[in-house]
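Quick one:
INPUT:
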């Protein structure tokens, strides 16, 4: 997603953000005075949030999401400045899966509905995405969105997904999390945190009371995940075909990686290689990465895609060692 110079400068003044490095030394931090705006109900795009100045130096102000990210954004209080997720995180996947690669270029990967694809595959880390979608008879492909992630590292499996939802309400949590088959329960309040007893350094923190979390594995990955619906307005504009039975709730995602090898592959992973050559038309309005058969996996946790790298290097337990 393109960013204006003013947005970049403003974001830099608020916090340190690493926008293109795959091997950053530390995780970017969102300041304590931020809030996340999500749609208040199905189809509501302009939800506003009040920022109260606890020091009494500034008047109370109202903020709403920019048109670039109408479904979810970050608000910095008390100044009421708003930013899109893409302003903070590289590797972002938004909507009809649009990724920002490790090389800084945007591209689309449409995949196919009701199938799983490996988006990152390295010797010690493997991430699959499950796609949902709608068929448009006038097109040769499905409209698709990422509904869930299956993350493997060492001998562990982490799942995060958006539950199927009829009528959307941001007051209802539609995010499902599980670690090694057991549910991950995080209290529904901003800043609530879950820490793994089995893997030190693995945490899940709510960035909003519902539908938004940050998953971190120290020294390995940092993922921002937000459950969002397809709004009625988006459906009308793009002919998505949203019905009252299904709001097509899906994940908007931000990825950051710290320990990828130069052999990494997958839809997104390959863009972090030093020898990656972008053959897409970056000037096109919708540069599309093809080759979907190379990334198909048999289920959300499988590592049987044609470009799989997981488990190829000795000492796979180093991932949990890094977390320690």
């Amino acid at each position: 997603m393109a960013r204006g110079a003013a947005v970049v400068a403003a974001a830099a003044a608020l916090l340190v953000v690493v926008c293109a490095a795959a091997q950053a030394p530390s995780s970017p931090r969102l300041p304590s005075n931020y809030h996340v705006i999500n749609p208040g109900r199905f189809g509501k795009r302009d939800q506003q949030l009040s920022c109260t100045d606890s020091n009494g130096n500034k008047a109370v102000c109202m903020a709403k999401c920019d048109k670039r990210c109408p479904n979810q954004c970050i608000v910095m209080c008390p100044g009421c400045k708003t930013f899109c997720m893409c302003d903070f995180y590289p590797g972002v996947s938004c909507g009809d899966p649009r990724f920002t690669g490790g090389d800084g270029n945007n591209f689309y990967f449409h995949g196919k509905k009701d199938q799983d694809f490996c988006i990152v595959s390295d010797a010690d880390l493997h991430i699959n995405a499950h796609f949902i979608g709608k068929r448009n008879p006038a097109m040769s492909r499905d409209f698709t969105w990422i509904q869930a992630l299956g993350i493997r590292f060492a001998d562990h499996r982490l799942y995060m997904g958006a539950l199927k939802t009829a009528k959307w309400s941001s007051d209802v949590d539609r995010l499902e999390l599980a670690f090694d088959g057991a549910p991950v329960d995080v209290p529904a309040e901003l800043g609530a945190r879950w820490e793994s007893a089995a893997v030190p350094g693995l945490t899940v923190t709510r960035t909003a009371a519902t539908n938004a979390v940050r998953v971190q594995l120290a020294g390995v990955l940092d993922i921002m995940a937000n459950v969002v619906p397809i709004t009625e307005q988006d459906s009308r504009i793009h002919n998505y075909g949203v019905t009252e039975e299904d709001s097509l709730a899906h994940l908007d995602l931000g990825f950051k990686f710290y320990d990828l090898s130069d052999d990494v592959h997958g839809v997104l992973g390959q863009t972090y290689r030093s020898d990656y050559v972008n053959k897409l038309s970056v000037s096109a309005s919708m540069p599309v990465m093809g080759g979907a058969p190379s990334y198909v996996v048999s289920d959300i946790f499988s590592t049987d895609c044609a470009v799989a790298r997981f488990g190829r290097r000795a000492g796979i337990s180093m991932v949990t060692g890094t977390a320690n």
